[in-house]
Amino acid sequence: MSAATINPNEAAHFGALAADWWDPHGSSAMLHKLNPVRLAYIRDQIDAHWQVDARERHALAGRGALDVGCGAGLLAEPLARMGAKVTGVDAAPENIAAARDHAAGQGLAITYFAGELSALPPATFDLVTSMEVVEHVADPAAFIGELAARLAPGGLMILSTPNRTMLSKLLLVEAAERVGAVPRGTHDWDQFLKPEELTKLLDAAGLEVIDRTGLSPSAAKGFKLGGSEALNYLVAARWPT
């Protein structure tokens, strides 16, 4: 992330949660419920984009993946298990320290960087992911531009973010923080992006949106793909062909 996109207050907020990141019952419990649903979407998009058999365990073998705003590695580690050579970057050094420790304990070789995306060594990646990050940066347009600059020709980008609706304000911000489902101060509703706003940012960066789906609560599973986009949604994009 360029100097214009990192919000120091946001980095400090999430860095303070680093030690708890891998605890499925701690302050990151919501992320642990979201992660399998996000992964299912990512895997579906990988299979469709590169014509991979859904039964293939190492769907990303031979490919490079970049996870931006990686936290302590909840997404980076599954991508590595899919065979990708993974790089993770996060604004909070505390998160990167936790990510490195956890990956080492799992025997996973993941390259982690703390700080600006623009400070990474020059490289592009087949897969670029950024989950629940764009709503936390200071300059969303510049951030999307930085992500696009890291996407290789023929690559795939997948983003997720909350939608700016009255329902998300009620449930994701006011209710969730009040009951402790997410740490207080995690969300600034005014920074949420509507799908058409995110699409415009991707268009401006030269990318085309190829898929979008809602991510909504499920009584049975916690969260599910499809249906309403009122709370949260995922987007897949690529370079125009």
Overview of this protein structure:
By secondary structure, this protein is an alpha/beta fold. The chain has 7 helices and 8 strands; from the N terminus they run H-H-E-H-E-H-E-E-H-E-H-H-E-E-E. Strands 3-2-1-4-5-8-6-7 form an 8-stranded mixed beta sheet. Helix 5 links the parallel strand 4 (125-131) and strand 5. The longest helix is centred in the N-terminal third of the chain and has 22 residues, at 29-50.
Write a concise keyword list for the protein shown above.
eight-stranded mixed beta sheet, 34% helix
Major sheet: arrangement of strands: 3-2-1-4-5-8-6-7
Low-pLDDT parts are none
Number of helices: 7
Proportion of residues in helical segments: 25-40%
Order of helices and strands: HHEHEHEEHEHHEEE
Work out the oligomeric state of the chains in this entry: single chain
Q: Would you tell me the structural class of the helices and strands?
A: alpha/beta
- Biggest sheet overview: 8 strands, mixed
